[in-house]
From TrEMBL:
Keyword DNA-binding: yes
Keywords: DNA-binding
GO molecular function: DNA binding
Protein name per Swiss-Prot or TrEMBL: Helix-turn-helix transcriptional regulator
Amino acid sequence: MKNRLEELRKERGIKQEELAAELEVSRQTIGSLENGRYNPSILLAFKLSKYFGLKIEDIFIYEEEEK
């Protein structure tokens, strides 16, 4: 799943460490999300949505796998 997390964070001038502290996760979690190595739990997706004031689907882009 792709996401706009890094773009949104940088637009607001927020460091990974600052976002991680706000969401009560590790900096590594934020880095992994941004690099697409990790998909968020539904709870974390909602926290990110609330933090940025956006819908979940405005942050995370679901793409179906080709068969």
